[in-house]
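Fold it.
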Amino acid sequence: EIFIEGRAIEALDEPELLELRSSSMGMVFQEDTLFTSMTVYENTAYRLTERGWSDDKTDMAVEEILRFVGLEKDTEKLPEELSIGMRRRLEIARALAGWPRIMLFDEPTSGLDPLTARQVLDLVIRARDIHGITSLYVTKELHQMAYLAVHYAAKDEAGVISVQRGDAKQLCEMKVMVLESGKIAYFGDPDEFEKSSVPAVAQLTHPTGSIRVTDTYIADPWSKARRPGDMKS
């Protein structure tokens, strides 16, 4: 069973599910899902407008979230005018508009260079620690899990937010889940994950090759011999 905010989603009908998704959840997909004919502002405001927010309330929310992701000066640009990193930040802004209580990130750094991927991770951390958003982050990159586990965001007296490495007292509670064949193979703390002997986890943390190559002979492409000694004198 799956519960969201104490409600079993299997028992909800379609209108109730739609209301739960629109009011409490945001999602960043692996692929680009921006509306290409809409500006940065319109993409960000889309979900809020669909929910019936007033123009003034929407303007304030969009301004806040675009400032949060660093796109406040690009409101009138179309997606095609943005870099890949900016497009990804716009995806995050649209999902975070209105500050939903729960965020789902489906491999949000897929296809991004290391620097841009780091910026995405920092935005996830800032949303989590500054705005109290619960996130479910899906990834195949174990180093990203480690980064999310040991870094936190803090705001100084001037209101500047920074992401830095923290100790146990500063870090938020984080759990790691490993799925295998549609079932939960592991659920626990990041530290325990590294030491786990669960086969599905051990294969991730200490992978072993399934094929052992012992024959390193490389054939001469111009020779008809398959192996040394195949040619008779």
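Helices lie at 14-24, 40-50, 55-69, 84-96, 114-131, 142-150, 190-195, 199-205.
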